[in-house]
Amino acid sequence: MLSGYNQWIPTNRNSPWTNDAPDARSVAPIAAEANESAVSAAPPQTDPQNTPARLNIGCSGWFYWAWRERFYPSALPTTQWFAYYASHFDTVELNAPFYSWPTMATVQTWLRQANGRSFAYTVKACELITHVKQFSRSAELVRDFEFIECILRSHMGCFLFQLPPSFKYTPARLKRIVDQLDPTLRSPQQPSALGFDGQG
For FRET with 73, which of 86, 99, 175, 192 sits at 20 to 30 Å CA-CA? Predict the structure, then answer.
């Protein structure tokens, strides 16, 4: 069961999640190009090792005030921003869960937004796991967080575990992380992503 901190609602123009918004001037051309040259998934093969990977194109976040008029039409209500975004891209990285553990209601909202679309989420893991505990005695937290995939199902792309610069890569640390991940939830089509900052 998901632990609950506060549900994140992007309504504050001065929110830390809006200050580092990608420049919408670079988003619009990418969206146009993605529509023109979208890569379709190849038909399923008998051997999954021979199945070409699907290429998903998207941005790190979708709710940025700076994108109004530059990407989102000025008259478009914010309640329709996700639908507009999803008509141009087929994936998005959710950064809010890094700052605040999502509630069940929040995850169900993600699911409703994506239903009926070929759309996948990359969910950034909570800093409680990656930065506070740094995967030390965090197995139960990791399993709780992975429950998000059980809700999102086919709309789950991958989990992103972004580690702090002070947490340097070692084989032992990598093993500690991998040992906490539930192998029954992962597949070649839905992997987990680990990011050691400053180390490629």
Answer: 99
